[in-house]
């Protein structure tokens, strides 16, 4: 049984939980998707009991701080383990072409040369194109450009071991260009910045985000079986699960999940 481990569920500016990132677990191995805003990724991985030497594939969706900057720490720590012979094999990082250059630049400026040199040796930055299929983690993945107007961003869809369709749409609202990738998903991962009723407080639309209501309307239109909401505000985490589910039920009859950081979902 493959599992989804939510490492972070918050938007860019949260302080009470970690920024949105997650891992898919298959037996002893993990495919990491986004890395959050910094060193906190190491804390989340430790709490989730995910050893660094079991991560050999990472996907980075886009350049914004809350998804990208944890990668610097992973490059540094995994390069250290490689040097100490505590990490077998290579680390492959996947992202769109421009992001390869961004990661190289940031890593070169911030990571010691002896670790940075592992890039190209045992750490590989692999660019993926819109619509490109790749065999990763023993699965067929299809990457796609979500059509962002803020910063170029990619999502992906994956066929799980049990044949189910898992679709990650990044941290922006569904767009029609994602239709084939999102349609009939067994697991649809969609951002929800806040409740619809709180839209005047958090102003999601001006930040190119949606509320629970629109995320649920998209899930209905796309016939999603399970909808996972993430990338939210963090003012009331204790009641987030309940409040978001209650609002969402009005607009979507499938299964709504509003995970907390470190929640594990069986896929
Ligand atoms: Zn974000």
Description of the molecule:
This protein is α/β, with parallel strands linked by helices and 267 residues long. The chain has one domain: Ribonuclease Z/Hydroxyacylglutathione hydrolase-like (Metallo-beta-lactamase, Chain A, 4-Layer Sandwich). It has helices at 40-47, 65-68, 70-83, 97-110, 113-116, 179-182, 199-202, 212-221, 237-249; strands spanning 3-8, 21-26, 29-33, 55-59, 91-95, 123-127, 133-136, 139-145, 154-159, 165-168, 187-191, 226-230, 255-257, 264-266. The strands form 2 sheets. A 7-stranded mixed sheet has the order 6-5-4-3-2-1-14. The chain has a 7-stranded mixed sheet with strand order 7-8-9-10-11-12-13, with helices on one face. Helix 8 crosses helix 9. The protein starts with a strand and ends with a strand. The structure holds zinc ion (ZN). Residues 11-12, 64, 66-67, 171, 231 line the site of zinc ion (ZN).
DSSP helical segment count:
9
User: What spatial order of strands do you see in the largest sheet?
Assistant: 6-5-4-3-2-1-14
- Measured by DSSP, the beta-strand proportion falls in 25-35%
How do the SSEs run, as a string of H and E?
EEEHEHHEHHEEEEEHEHHEHEE
Mean pLDDT: 97
Specify Rg, calculated over alpha carbons: 18 Å
Structural class category:
alpha/beta
Q: Return the domain count.
A: 1
Major sheet attributes? 7 strands, mixed
Helix content: 25-40%
